[in-house]
Amino acid sequence: MSEASFRRIAADQALAFMASASGRGQPYALFDTRDAASYAQDHLPGAHRLSERDLGDWIGRLPRAEPVLIYCYHGNASQVFAQAFADFGFAEVYSIDGGFQALAQAQAMMRSQSAGRPAPSPALQAFMAEEGCALVRIDAAAAHGMTPLMKAARAARLDLVDELIDLGADLEARNSDGNTALWLACFGGDAAVVQRLVAAGARLDNQNDTGATALMYCASSGRDGLVELLLGAGADARLQTQDDFRAVDLAATAGSLRLLRHTA
To answer: 3-state DSSP call for residue 88?
Structure first.
């Protein structure tokens, strides 16, 4: 008699299995074995967090005939948990290859296809994973409210900024300081990225939590070329910070002061 075991399943197959089961009204259990912080940051809808501490409780609670799907970070630890369920007589147990990242990528591709948009490129998927952005949403924020578009703009990655805009990224999302991607592009200092965001319709005069605008930042940091670019695009130099400073008051170079003097 062969030893009971689990089955390995690819991420796209796992998503298809869950969609089919839901459509037929068939219950299944989905488990996430990553650490609590990773689970709290993002997880698949309906997934329960599973640890060694509560493994026995779940094994005792679930019907043996109910399918069980398990994912971890990359598809290794999930196999250990899957084997435990199989050893206790569960008839249909799956370990999802590639773990959460593979599931998120597969889900992003499915959503892009259903929306008639191209799937995120491998380069964008890798960038989002490296930057700690959840792959299941194009505007998913990482630490400090930073979206993929903000991070790509700050890194002066025009290729990724182009792609994210084409994928429908939110130009006006604000991070924890109230700054948008345009501000982060100015911080990155790449005029081509700033121009791309402006051309896409990014709002020029967003004021962050202190009332500062991208124009004020560029003036205060001596980025004369970007000051000229923003003024040419129609940025409002009359706006004031919460301390009543305008861009001209913050100008750090003679070049920026010359560009802004007419607004005094």
So the answer is: coil
Residue 114: its pLDDT value, please?
Answer: 61
Choosing among 3.40.50.720, 3.40.50.300, 3.40.50.620, 3.40.250.10, the CATH entry for 7-101 is 3.40.250.10
DSSP state of 263: G
pTM above 0.70, yes or no: no
Query: Catalytic residue positions?
Result: 72
Looking at 42-190, list the stretches that DSSP marks H as alpha helix, in order from N- to C-terminal side.
52-61, 77-87, 99-114, 122-130, 148-154, 158-166, 181-188
**CB contact at 8 A, 8 and 46:** no
**pLDDT tier at 1, thresholds 50, 70, 90:** very low
Q: Where are the domains of the chain?
A: 7-101, 141-263
Q: Which helix (H) or strand (E) holds 255?
A: helix 254-260
The strand pairing partners of 69, in sequence order, are 30, 94
Query: Lowest-pLDDT range, 35-39, 141-145, 229-233, 244-248?
Result: 141-145
Q: How far apart are CA 91 and CA 212, in angstroms?
A: 60
141-263 has CATH 1.25.40.20 classification: yes
